[in-house]
Amino acid sequence: MAMYRKLGKKTKLRKALLRSQVTALLYRGRIITTEARAKEVQKLVEPMITLAVREKDNVETVTVKAKAPRKDKDGKRMKEEKDGKKVTLYDEVDKEIRKDKPSRLAARRQLLRFMYPVVEVPSEAAGRKKATKEVDLIAKMFDEYGPRFASRKGGYTRIIKIGQRKGDGALMVVLELV
After folding, report:
1. What's the confidence (pLDDT) of residue 3?
2. Is 1 helix (H, G, I), strand (E, B) or coil?
3. Closest Cα to residue 175, out of 21, 79, 31, 37?
4. H or E stretch including 172?
5. Contact yes or no for 35/159 (Cβ under 8 A)
6. Which residues pair with 136 in a beta bridge?
7. Phi and psi (nearest 5°) for 40?
8. Which residues of the chain have pLDDT under 50?
9. How many CB atoms lie within 10 A of CB 159?
10. 134 Cα distance to chain centroid
11. Residues 6 or more apart whose Cβ sits within 8 Å of residue 167
C-alpha cells in the first residue's frame, strides 16, 4: 500500500497542486476540493500548524538604534545644504524589533519551503498593479493560528462532504480550519 495518494498526476504536478492547495487553505481558511485531495492536504497542513503552535511564543524583543529622517510640520523631510548639495537630516531613534529565536527561525524556513508566496490584488480596476501587496503567510501562522490552536492537541482541520461533482461524479468536500 502506498504512503500517499498519487491523485492521477505525475510527481511535479502533484506536488505543485498540493502546495497551492495548502497555501490557499492557510490563506483563506477553507477550500472546496475533491475528497482524495482534501485528505492529502490535511496530512500536510496538520503538522505545519502543530509547528506554528509549538513556536508561537519563541521570539525575543530587541531594542536597536535606527536613523529616521527629520520631518517638518507638513510631514516632508527636512534638508540642509552641505557643499552645494541638499542632504536629508536624520535623527537617531530607539526601535524595538521582534527577533526569532533559532528554533522558530528553523520552523519558519521549514514552512517557507512548502508554501507559495501570496500576493493580494484589489478588486477595483483602477490602480490594481500599484495596490498589490505581498501577504506574510508565515507570520499569520505564528501570530494568528498559533494562539488560536494552542489549546488543541491536533485536529485543526475538518472535512465536510457537499456532494458529487456534476462532470465526473467525484465526491466534493469543503476542507476548512476548525
Report:
1. 83
2. coil
3. 31
4. strand 171-177
5. yes
6. none
7. -70, -45
8. 1
9. 15
10. 9
11. none
| Range 62-73 burial, b when 16+ CB lie within 10 A, else e | eeeeeeeeeeee
Grid cell locating 165? 461533482
- Closest to 33 in 3D by CA, of 124, 132, 121, 159: 159
Amino acid found at 52: A
Q: What is the pTM of this model?
A: 0.82
- Cell (9 digits) for 5: 495518494
The C-alpha atoms of residue 22 and residue 43 are separated, in whole angstroms, by: 10
- Residue 27: left (phi > 0), alpha (psi -120 to 50), or beta? alpha
Query: What pLDDT, on a 0 to 100 scale, did the predictor assign at position 2?
Result: 65
- Would you state the pLDDT for residue 162? 97
Domains and CATH numbers, the chain: 11-58+101-177 (3.90.1030.10), 59-100 (no CATH)
| Dist CA 40 CA 61 (whole Å) | 37
Q: How many CB atoms lie under 10 A from the CB of residue 148?
A: 16
